[in-house]
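ok, trying the design again with the full structure, not the truncated one.
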């Protein structure tokens, strides 16, 4: 089968087993990152207020500059060394902030970068540069409401052996899962650079040659290198680290024999069955949240009886969090297996592109509140958005193509036999589709899946064959091969854009975002541009 080497980013997630001292260091880093983030938001807000005051006073060109990532890092360095800090427990006042030096410096830089990005996304949304729901004004993070997380990077961050990872300032950490696979990748050494084919130069826009930014004109890159690590604590109290790894990976440029034999398939995601395939097969909906709802209700009743601020209440909160975490992990595991099966057995996959969140907010507005709440809970328990995202992420790796319909495509009310679309959508209470023209009668989900397969066969050649597609936030995405296409006129669901080389340290790159958490056995990646 046709393959090629691609430079991409891939996330490896490992559950950590820290000692009590290391867990205290984690909380210190998370608190420092939260403080730096709030501090950065405040500095930018103050600069915006001063800028507006100058504009209101009639100043043509206000002298106040809105700080970015670089300016925030410089201001943070000056502030931590020169400000007066009063300890809230002892009341002692010191010159300089004493606790800043106990944490890794890159953690503060990454938090300040996130603060600058939060304000930038807010203004981009107001100016219409982001084609999605409006982004609200950045809010401060709270110790009691926000997830405890922080970022680290640098040469100190490394895989020590099959069961240990070394973090800056924290030291050697034991992992619950084996890191042997990542360790072997990192120890492979250098390989030819895929973007420039080992030549050190790539074509410029005007046709001339320019230096390759991936290998810095060297022609060779590491087979795998750790860019950064995001340490976070879930609701159940377990710590994990998501390592963003830039690696050279072999990906397919075309379908395999098994995929070609599977051909085109339409997938109708739903609640009664997680997915109905155009072949007549169904993927059962395990309803993990519904299965754990009794335990969750008992745990929450116990939590409500605990006194606020007590250790007993903290223990009860962790019990509730562990139930939620188990439901989430089971849901992710089932969706990962289902999407992997589809990608490995079919070369063209068609799915509907309707907005899951909009349906939850508006689709049941006329129903009683209890019925609407139960329907929305069942819809959220399916993880349809996650399933479509995983299909889009895995398709470029294995030579498959995912076609996403427009948000208002008529596949849900189109007859799969004659192709006639009814005037009105089928009511939710109707379980069978009946065509008024040809009299075709079929299960509504199976009819939609077959209509999707027919739609994909007719739109496959009309969809763009390569180049850039756009995700739900209009961010440019360059798939590495056969991938996700939006042939219905609306946005495609595509992998996240590449944030290669972006750590907490200021540089010439654009602001990045933390790596998305991924399943360890089905880690996600994005081809490098």
């Amino acid at each position: 089968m046709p393959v090629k080497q691609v430079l991409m980013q891939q996330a490896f997630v490992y559950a950590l087993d820290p000692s009590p001292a290391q867990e205290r260091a984690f909380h210190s880093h998370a608190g420092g990152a939260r403080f730096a983030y709030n501090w950065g938001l405040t500095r930018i807000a103050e600069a915006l207020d001063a800028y507006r005051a100058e504009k209101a006073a009639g100043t043509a060109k206000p002298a106040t500059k809105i700080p970015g990532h670089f300016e925030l890092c410089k201001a943070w360095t000056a502030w931590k060394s020169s400000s007066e800090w009063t300890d809230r427990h002892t009341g002692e006042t010191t010159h300089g902030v004493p606790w800043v030096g106990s944490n890794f410096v890159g953690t503060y830089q990454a938090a300040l970068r996130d603060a600058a990005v939060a304000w930038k996304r807010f203004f981009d949304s107001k100016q219409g540069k982001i084609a999605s729901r409006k982004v609200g004004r950045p809010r401060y993070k709270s110790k009691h409401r926000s997830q405890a997380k922080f970022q680290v990077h640098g040469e100190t961050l490394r895989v020590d052996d099959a069961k240990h990872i070394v973090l800056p300032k924290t030291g050697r950490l034991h992992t619950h899962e084996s890191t042997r696979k990542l360790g072997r990748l990192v120890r492979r050494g250098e390989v030819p650079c895929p973007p420039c084919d080992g030549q050190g130069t790539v074509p410029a826009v005007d046709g001339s040659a320019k230096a390759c930014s991936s290998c810095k004109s060297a022609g060779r890159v590491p087979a795998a290198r750790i860019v950064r690590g995001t340490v976070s604590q879930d609701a159940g109290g377990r710590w994990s680290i998501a390592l963003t790894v830039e690696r050279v990976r072999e990906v397919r440029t075309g379908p395999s024999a098994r995929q070609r034999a599977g051909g085109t398939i339409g997938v109708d995601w739903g609640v009664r069955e997680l997915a109905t395939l155009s072949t007549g097969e169904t993927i059962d909906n395990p309803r993990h949240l519904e299965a754990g709802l009794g335990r969750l209700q008992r745990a929450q009743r116990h939590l409500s009886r605990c006194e606020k601020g007590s250790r007993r209440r903290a223990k009860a909160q962790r019990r509730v969090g562990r139930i939620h975490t188990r439901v989430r992990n089971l849901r992710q595991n089932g969706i990962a297996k289902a999407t992997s099966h589809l990608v490995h057995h079919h070369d063209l996959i068609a799915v509907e592109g309707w907005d899951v969140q909009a349906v939850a907010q508006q689709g049941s507005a006329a129903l009683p509140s209890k019925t609407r709440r139960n329907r929305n809970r069942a819809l959220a328990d399916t993880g349809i958005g996650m399933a479509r995202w995983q299909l889009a992420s895995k398709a470029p790796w294995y030579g498959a193509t995912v076609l996403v319909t427009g948000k208002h495509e008529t596949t849900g009310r189109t007859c799969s036999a004659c192709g006639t679309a009814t005037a009105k959508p089928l009511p939710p209470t109707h379980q069978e589709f009946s065509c008024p023209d040809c009299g075709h009668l079929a299960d509504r989900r199976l009819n939609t899946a077959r209509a999707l397969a027919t739609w994909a066969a007719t739109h496959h050649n009309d969809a763009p064959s390569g180049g850039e597609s756009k995700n739900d936030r209009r961010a440019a995405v360059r798939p590495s091969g056969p991938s996700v296409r939006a042939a219905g006129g609306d946005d495609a669901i595509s992998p996240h854009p590449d944030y290669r080389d972006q750590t907490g340290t200021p540089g010439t790159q654009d602001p990045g975002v933390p790596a998305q958490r991924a399943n360890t056995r089905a880690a996600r990646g994005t081809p490098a541009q």
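Keeping the full-length input from now on. Residues 254-285+330-497 form one domain.
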